[in-house]
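Dig into what follows:

_____
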Amino acid sequence: MKTAGGARMRARAAMRAELTAVVVTLALEHGYEQTTVDDICAAAEISRSTFFRYFPTKEDAVLSGLADAGERLREALVARPDEEPAWTALRHALGSLIDQYDGHEEKTRRLTRLIVTTPALAAKHREKNARWRELLRPEIARRLRIDSADVADPRPDAVVAAALGCVEATLAAWTAAENPRPLPEILERAMSVVR
């Protein structure tokens, strides 16, 4: 039996997805800085207070599609074979993240370019990556056979930061090239330098 709370959660998730689609469409058509919350509200036919009930900022609305990507990445990392070295396991787990970008080629590239080149969005994206480090650190520490509670040991953080840096470099290269290589190939090139 489905509960009323479940229905409310689904309705809330649907409204968040709809608002994100509106924000992304407007930002891609008119530019991120030129798109105001009032523009978004007019296009979505909602009030400003309704918008802010769903998102604290315009940046959060644009990036909400990536909200659960860190958790999915952590799950993919944990699912890798135990004997796999930390760097290799992280490279394979990142495939799930890259697949998210690699789906709808042109629109995804345009949105990614917008995120990479817009200072407010790039900063919010880096903030998200900092949360991902916290999610991934325990599993990387386990694979390195070190105590994840030892915050004075920089190795797990270094591995995660290097991998996320490779993802950032991959996305920047993918959006900058006129005819880019496939994303998995670009990521492999970036990560093989650090390996």
Observations:
- The two ends are 50 Å apart (CA to CA).
